[in-house]
Write a structure and sequence with these properties.
The chain has helices at residues 2-12, 16-36, 42-77, 85-106, 111-118, 124-154. The chain is mostly helical. α4 packs antiparallel against α6 (124-154).
């Protein structure tokens, strides 16, 4: 039995209890969708969810995994006293999250409904997202500069010695 579990874990990439946990989460989600949402739009919601999963797993994940590999390769080549990789990762993540949340407003999807509900247009969304993105990168660059200056002043290397 142990040999079978080891083979399964090696093939699956994780322990069997993790698969059971994921299947339980999917079962709970299916229960909520079927029982608590008897709306006819259930099919559309399910199709949207599956498309989002496929889009993420087959398109977006390879893109940002490849970008992170390039960042790490650049960080290995240009060793500095202060690591810079997270000073790029954090603003990129923040910007991507804001883009994901506000994308309908940025591309002005549902413009009539938004105007009817608020009396405002969606025109400022793109500019504000770009401004927030620039601010996150500027703050990250400033914090990196502070860390570099402190390390030079204190004579501290990357490993803390």
């Amino acid at each position: 039995m142990r040999v079978l579990l080891r083979r399964f874990s090696r093939a699956y990439g994780a322990a069997p209890h993790q698969l059971l946990l994921v299947l339980g989460a999917f079962a709970l989600t299916a229960y909520v969708v079927v029982v608590l949402v008897p709306d006819p739009s259930f099919t559309r919601m399910l199709v949207w969810f599956l498309a989002a999963v496929v889009l993420h797993d087959l398109v977006l994940f390879p893109v940002y995994a490849g970008a992170d590999r390039l960042l790490r390769a650049g960080a290995r080549r240009g060793r500095t006293a202060v690591g810079w990789i997270n000073h790029v990762r954090v603003p990129v993540l923040g910007s991507a999250l804001l883009l994901l949340v506000f994308l309908p407003g940025i591309i002005e999807q549902g413009e009539f409904t938004y105007y009817a509900a608020t009396g405002q247009t969606q025109q400022p969304f793109l500019g504000r997202w770009l401004l927030l993105t620039a601010a996150m990168f500027a703050l990250s660059a400033l914090w990196y500069l502070v860390r570099v200056m402190r390390s030079r002043h204190l004579g501290v290397g990357r490993d803390g010695n």
